[in-house]
Queue: 2 jobs
Job 1
Amino acid sequence: MTTLIQNGLVVTATGTLHANVVVDGEKITAVVDRSAPVPQADKIIDATGKYVLPGGIDVHTHMEMPFGGTSSADTFETGTRAAAWGGTTTIVDFAVQAKGTGLLATLDKWHAKADGNCSVDYGFHMIVSDVNETTLKEMDACIAAGVNSFKMFMAYPGVFYATDGEILLAMQKAAASGGTVMMHAENGIAIDQLVAQAIAAGRTDPVHHGLTRPPELEGEATSRAITLAKVANCPLYIVHLSAAQALAAVAEARDTGQNVFAETCPQYLYLSIDDLARPDFEGSKFVCSPPLRPASHQASLWAGLRTNDLSVVSTDHCPFCFKDQKELGRGDFSKIPNGMPGVEHRMDLLHQGVVSGHLTLPRWVEVCSTTPARMFGLYPRKGVIAAGSDADIVIYDPAAAQTLSAATHHMNVDYSAYEGMPITGKVVTVLSRGRLVIDGETYVGSTGHGQFLDRGLNQYLV
Ligand code: URP
Ligand code: ZN
Ligand code: ZN
């Protein structure tokens, strides 16, 4: 079965091209300039006036993740379907090592959750929360099993937190084995003192989640992670970077040529601590870590995306319903489960960045698809419209108007962090490995179509 996507503007990380795209089975077989004769095909999709993009790749999601006494509300089934609605055709989710358990047993557990349940392709990173001899040995086995990125936490003492010594050991192991360490960089030891002081003083509203996690403590932890990575000679990827101080540390390291990379997320580009301060416990909807910052940080983050000191935009999709989940923290912000929904809206929110003049069209594709593919060993199978690549294709209408809302989104969560926000642009068609998944206003995909991706190495390392 061949499909011809005709008359669209193909957007890649390097530019735009008026071209027809031919798909045969699961692969793109040709990208033909529109001045050339039109190829024959069994099925034609007309993309006149639309962009033709490589499918979005969200390398930071948490489907059905146990956290804070509850579990994130999207399953692999609901979460990957919502991703597809928003033009994301690959996710890389986090398997979570519980203390006292092994990495391989953890990986098996996450395979069992995802296998047969996904609408789009998926890979895994591994959260390392228990550094010991077995863990360090099993990092090699994870790499052999297609999982070569290991997230560690300088935050959440008693849960995921690792000491500097443990981080150094894991970094040395990753460096020797071809892995990348991903870091949640916040000084959790200092933060816990500020949290205890706030609760003791009766400052219990959600805004205090933000006020007890100051940007300086993200900047400090980011610098420390960079130093540890330098000593271990380990590639480092800073996740969910939110603060100008942390970005400055990343930029300084990159200027020296160190293998340090960073991502930010739409919530840090569009939302702020003012949202955390919304009355009547509404602020709990915006509790995530690192927290939303004063709006003054946003200009630095957009600039970082332009200069490539921030090279990826992921969502850190970790949804908890307002009712019964966020409400666990009424009267004590430290008990609000940390995380926000977003997997469905990353492509739209970053296209809004193009509309507003923050990013160019190719840069939109680069930070949302091509660089994530290269960073996490999926390129050129994913992340590009080219002959030989998987036919993960999004047809995007840049002129459509939509309003983000929980009433219309497909994520399994009872609120939208962007309720009422007008967006210019909308996904109209999505193909995953050549298979139609979204057709206008209809989901036509199937649960179980999504396959596990055995990922290669980070392609930015020299
Ligand atoms: O608040 C957040 N970010 N929740 C998800 C877990 C993490 O730290 O990424
Ligand atoms: Zn994190
Ligand atoms: Zn996360």
Job 2
Amino acid sequence: MNQGIHLSGLAQPELVEFIEALGLPAYRGRQLFAALQQRRLRSFEEISDLPKDLRVRLNEVATASSLTVESRYISVDGTRRYLMKTHDNLPVETVFIPEERRDTICFSSQSGCPLQCTFCLTAQLGLLRSLTAGEIVEQIIIALNDAYGVGEKPPRGTNLVGMGAGEPFLNFDALMKALRIMANPEGLHIVPNRVTVSTAGIVPRILELGKIPDRPHLAISLAAPTDELRDKLMPINKKWPLEELLSACKEFEKTLKAGERFTFEYVMLDGVNDSEEQARQLANLLNRHGLKAKVNLIPHNAADPLPYQPSTAGKVERFRSILESKGVHTFVRRPRGRDIFAACGQLAARAGATISHSATK
Ligand code: SAH
């Protein structure tokens, strides 16, 4: 396989520079950018408006696309999960979630994940490596082409969530670069305002994001209202405990602009973090820090080797109403694509399309 420079990871000015370095006029660079990012073509052969000799030349020094789709799973609810491979054979997973008024694409920022959250299946892969900007962008191109046809304009708006495998804030530069590339109106034209990035709580990056004007919406994964429990569920808490994390969140909140969304995610684990007492602790914690951010409750998506069950609907509702009664706006997230292992915390490069039940249960 061609291992030359990967062009879907270049911003438009970089691609123009690359083309000029080959002794070609700048407009060829813009043409190439539009072909890759707006027409979503994935090989030089397909870009038939470029001269043949240029296409041959490009093939020698560069690559148009680097991910390959290994398998695709389609849920009864229309959600699609793609299991892709990088050029060095590592798994990448992407989820396409159709909704009435928009589509959401959930992309991965790393192959595997270094954080060892005990409730998340991706943790079991460990970190394979961080993805490049081009590999992040390509996930979106592949999902849109599959859903609507190559280069076809999506009929609804496209939202992106950085909530697939990996910790986006441990791959900050590539992530931000990918977002810049995708925002270009002559390319995919998905602006940061349509993107939400979720972090397990990498404090320095939360503070850094606060200083960036053109940024995505931010979500913080909490999972527990006390350090004692969060240390166990999300070991990253030992490095940046709740006080530090929530102080950084408060700093970030001060920089919010009108219309910007800032949310907390709270995965609901039966009998572990879903008691009435814990709801009160969570509300008090957020209120003590003066945080106005909303809370999304995510009932746990079961994943066979993990020792957790989702909280019952009744418990989730009770938890929600306690938070609300203390002034914390709370929503319950509806799981999508559970049957194909596409829901939160289920991405672990699984080949199966249906949940396998072990005989002992
Ligand atoms: N590493 C980032 C991005 C992953 S986002 C982060 O932690 O925020 C994935 C979201 O799904 C997180 O909010 C996480 O807490 C949640 N999650 C993980 N495993 C889950 C599971 N099995 N069921 C439901 N939600 C889960």
